[in-house]
Every structure is written in C-alpha cells, then in structure tokens.
Amino acid sequence: MSDLNRKHPKALPYLFLTEMWERFGYYLMLGIFVLYLTDADKGGFAIDNKIAVDVFGTFIAFTYLTPFIGGFIADRKLGYVKSIYIGGAMMGLGYMGLAVHNLQFFYACVALIVIGNGFFKPSISTLLGNLYSTDQYRNNKDAGYNIFYMGINIGAFICNIIAAFMRNKYSWGAAFMTAGIGMFVGLIIFSFTLKEVKEANQLKPAEKGDASITQVLSMVFLPAIVAGILGWMIPGDILGSDSTDAFIAACIPICIFFGSLYVKANAFDKKPIAALLAIFVVSIMFWAVFKQNGTALTNWAKYYTDRSVSTTTENVLKPIYLVEQVSSKKDLVTMYDNQYNVLKDAAGKPIKDSGMHVYFKNAPEQIRADGSSVSTVNTELFQSINPGWVVALTPLVVMFFMFLAKRKREPTTPSKITWGILISALSTLVMVGAVYASNNGANKVSALWLVASYGVITIGELFLSPMGLSLVSKLSPPRLTALMMGGFFLSISIGNKLSGVLASMWYSYDIKANFFLVNCVLLLLAFILGISILKWMNKIFKEYMK
Q1: Per-residue pLDDT tens digits for 477-500
Q2: Could you say which architecture CATH assigns to the domain 2-201+266-303+379-544?
C-alpha cells in the first residue's frame, strides 16, 4: 500500500471503489436490458428482439453522448465533485424507477439515467486525471487509468451474478433496485475522498474566444435537438431505423462544434486538439464492434451456445439461482428472423424457412422426444466474461508496459490505442471459427468460443479504452479537459449506436460467419487509418508532453 501511495494519489482507491459501484449499477442494468424487454414469460415487455436491439443501441449511444454537455458544464460552472453527486443521484433514481413495470415510465427512467451519466462520467474521469497533474504522479497516469479501469470491470463482473440471482429469486424489479443501491453506495464511498480531491476540483477559467455555456446550448445543443427531430421525420429508414437516423443527425452539430474547437484554438492548443480528434475518429469502429457484447454476442450466448450444465454444477448453482429449468415442450418460442433452427429434418439437415421459426431454446437433442427439462446457465452471466478478463489481464498488461518502460521501449499512448484496434480485429476471427464449429448455427457450441473471443478483444480494450482516457487527460488544454472527455465519450456514443446498426444486420446474413468478417474488416480499416497517422500523432504527443 505504501508503494501504491508513492506512485499514485491517495484518492485513487476511493475513486476506484466509487467507479466500481457506479459501473456495478450501470452494467447490471445493461446486462438485463434486452432480456427484460424481450421476455414474455417472467414479467418482461415481450418486445420483438430486433426492436429491443435498436432500443438498446440508442440507449447506450445517448449515455455516451450527454457527457459532451455534462463535461462542459462541469468545466465551467459546477465543478467535478458537484457533477458527480448530481449525476450519480439521477442515475441511482433512474435504476430504481425501472422496477416499475410500465413501458412509458421505463423510457422516462432511461432518459434520467442518460442525463445523469452525462454529468457523472466525464467528471470522475477528469478528476482522476487532475490528480496526476503533479510531477510526483505524472509518469504513472497510464497505470492509474488502468487501475481505475479495472475497478470499472470488477463492478461489471460481479453485477451479472447478482442480477441473475435477484431476477430468478425475486423479480426483474428487484434486480433494477439492486442497481440503484449500488450507485448510491458508490456516492457514499466518494464522500470519503472530498479532502483529497479538493485541489483537483478547481474550475478552469475560460480564455478569450472560448464558447460560453449559453452559446453552446443555443448554437450546438438546440441545433442537435432540431437535427434529431428532422432525422426522425425523414421518410424511410436511411440507417436502419428512425432512432438511428435521428441520433446520427443530432450528432452532426456536435461534431461540427468539436471541429470548431480546433479552428478557434491558439497555436499552442491546435496540435494536441487535432491529435485527440483523430483518436476519436479512429476509436469509433472499435466501439461499434466491442459494444455488440450486449446484442449480437448476447444472442449468440442465448441461442447458439450450449448452456446446459452437469448435475454437479446444477447442484452448486441452483441454490443461488444462477441456473434455470428449460423444458423442450414448454419453452417453444417464435423467432421473427432468418436464423437456422436447431431442429433438423429426417436427413439431419437444419430446418429453415422464410417465415416464422419454432426454436427449442437450449434443448439438447436427446431430450426433445420425452419433453423433459434441462438446467441451463443464465444468459446474463456471459456478460461477466469480458469484465472478468479485464480484472485478470489488467495486472499483466500493466506489468508488460512497466517491463518495456524500464527498457525505454514502452509505446506511446497513441501507439497503444492503434495496436489495440488490430488486436481487437482478431477477436472477430475467433467468432468466425465458432460459426463454422456450429455448422452455421445448426448446432450449439461450447461456451469456450465466447470466452476466447472476449479474451482477445479484452486485450485490445486494455490497449485502447483506459489509454484513451489517459490521452485526453494528457493532451487536453486544462480549461477544456472535461469537455474533451465528452468528445472521447462522443466517439464511444457514435460507436455504440453503430453497434446497434451492425447487430440488427445479423438477421440479414444467411452465412453468419460473414457477419463477423464484416466486423473484422471495419476494425482493420480503422487500424490502417490509425497506422497512417501514427507518426504524426506520436510527434505531437512527444512535443506536448515535454
């Protein structure tokens, strides 16, 4: 602990725990979001899966869009501490409100969560970066964000286990209430560090030419709303749905605003702002693929993965409500898509038609005849694989970079981000292998395919996501740090929405391997773009960090 205090600020463990509990609530809600909307048997809304995926994509897109305005207000008016409390309280109340089984109220609470996240997310990330602004800690900023990021994923790992327990033992509502409690626990922990973060919470004065909050609201935020409404009203679904058209249209004024920051910046600020904007663009494709963990990969876990467990495993998991009983006669569901059915014809070939499909969920072939039931692991538990990998791999990644640093061969932060995109592309090839192993979805395959794919993309994530936060903290002009954090989250937001667009295309692919190959190509294109400008970005990084 003494070594940690020498290398990192004293407030780091508290911010670590605050973010852990905040992400516990967020990812608990996220892990059951689509399952709750589509559930028809246990108190859900029974919404068509394709619509639910679009709603999910819109939600996660907006949660990373609002940090743009929330970060700006934190920079100029509220400060980071007040923004954390305001945002956290709104999110906690929103999670609890989801327990009310009413679709209109559900969407209202989702909006409350979106706004709350806009205040909370950029503020705590900026506060952490400010703590590393002194010479004592400056060189450990990358490692500090890695540790902080591990806290995020400890919360994301344990939440799905708790979600499955609360949902199976009690109800969907109990699970959502637990998410809200987790958020308020995080705020309580944050209160213990107010003394340590006092100096890091100082407001940064605006400079001549900087936009005021009134100007941003009237010239950016209002036009974004108008553009979103127009995007919704455009005839036809240009990008797949009205919500996607509206969201992308709303992003246009905001993207123009971030471009104007570069145009209006003084000579000293121009280069680092340009480098950050370039990183934001390159990162979009990573998030478009990565955020399919809540859509396409959740569907893969639910419909294409053998989740049945042995009697021994059942005896361990059943008392804590982490398995469910599925009957081959009772649990027939109607699928409105073109995926292969697990049922086979007399020749042993997969049954497929162009209309509605009857699908035996999770029913091994040998039990279909007698109608007996089988115990299966809850689908949401697969959402814990990625954060589990983050917790396991973060120490290894940090030690790897420390090893390189001692030999003066550690890559720059932009280099880490660029290579992380290439590593992430390899994870899609693992899923291509899973498709071939499943005979294009005709047979369920081992969960190890998902475990392996998540493992590879997690390495890419650790090269990119915490490094992106660190880079923004390093290169942003001090008075614009939280705003530029909002820009980083804007890239995540656009990527999140595109992830929903990509995931909805799953149903258009007869050969499912092609779906993952398209994802691979998108990541490779982003990597090629990153490599092409890497020398330029590294030059700016080294100049600005002197």
Answers
A1: 877 777 787 888 888 888 888 887
A2: Up-down Bundle (1.20)
